[in-house]
Task: structure prediction
Amino acid sequence: MKLNLKIWRQKNREDKGKMVDYSIDHVSPDMSFLEMLDVLNEQLINKGDDPIAFDHDCREGICGMCSLFINGRAHGPNYGVTTCQLHMRSFKDGDTIFIEPWRAQAFPVIKDLAVDRSAFDRVIQAGGYVSANTGGAQDANCLPVPKENADKAFAAATCIGCGACVATCKNGSAMLFVSAKVSQLALLPQGKAEAQQRVLNMVAQMDAEGFGNCSNTGACEIECPKGISLENIARMNREFMKASILSEK
Amino acid sequence: MSNSALLKSSLVKKYWMSATGLFLCLFLAGHLAGNLQLLISPENGARDAFNMYGKFMTTNIFVKVLSIVTYISILFHAIDGIILTIQNRRARPVRYVKETPSASSSWASRNMALLGTVMLVFIVLHMLAFWKRMHFGPIETYIAANGEELKDLYSITVLSFKDADNGLIVCMIYLVAMIAIAFHLMHGFQSAFQSVGIRHPKYTPLIKKVGYGFALLVPLLFAIIPFYIRFML
Result:
């Protein structure tokens, strides 16, 4: 396969950046998208050019490091996969592919396609945890958890924090991510104790980071590689309303 | 923390959008019920019926209170919407070179601000044409069949759509505004429930169906009125 690539190049945070055209030949349809970029980078290095910076780690679709807005879609044209699990057989010989970084005020570009997603870390630090004193594990039967709640909490916890929701949302909103992290704890007895303060603090941090508001377009749910449901956003809306009214702090 | 959250938080702004939006849906239904009297034929006393309804709507104390809540809701919904839109634009200062938003969301859901602006312009024109004349004149009065003196809003309404020079343009403005309302409601109705956390596997599909029905039926019935008056009366 021969492909024309239009890739965002930006030297550093301050640089304005621009789209640069590349052409790559002999691309195997069995390569992953990131492997295709690896090949391109090797060619650039051999020519003495600066290779393209992009985030990646496990390349198994579970770490949440890879990103890329490919042809106007987060993680490319397929549903339910991250960019590392996107293969070149999803494209045709001669295709032109636009590759851009996540775009959001809260996700500044570090270099080329790599963005700073530490805003997500700060949202988690604001309350996305259970502060329980650890001791000997108690009998599991002391904490009954309905199967439905366990399943919903697990589904919310599959969020890998890649930021596709923010990248896709026309408002650069982080509601799907934050709601998944609020939900996975709000649904379980261990998380109930700190539920009020958690949702208030995490939403406040989300707003402070400069993420946009939710227009309920539903785009985040569709582009999320883990299929996190909008149900979580509704739950966060409920939890926040309850906490805003009832919290004594 | 919770006090400032109740004023400033992104979620609370959405609660207000939801509450005012749903109240305005009720207003639309009430307004439509009143306006459908314009479809009564003149031989059956449409003029008296509509003008008596107009008198009730401008003098009844309960209606007056409701109308003030409606004005506040419209203003609040618009101002809150503008604030949300500005914040949302700021959240993505650098746009994508290539975007394919239709792959993951509906056109209406992405253009609520545009549709809302069309509606706001329409509301101003609409109130200048009828509301202002009903409240502040100039408007003629006449003695109805039951001996009551009534402001003749009915004739103003009929004339504005039947006017030889501008009537068709006025009808078209109404049509465009009703199309905007239809798309706005198609997303807005069900979205209002999601924003306040009302989502349930049993009820959400029903809310969506009712929302689509409301979004199609109410603007359609509103839109029929000017064309009925222009071409059938």
In short: The CA atoms of residues 143 and 149 of chain B lie 5 Å apart. Chain B has one domain: 10-90+110-232. The first helix of chain B runs from residue 2 to 8.
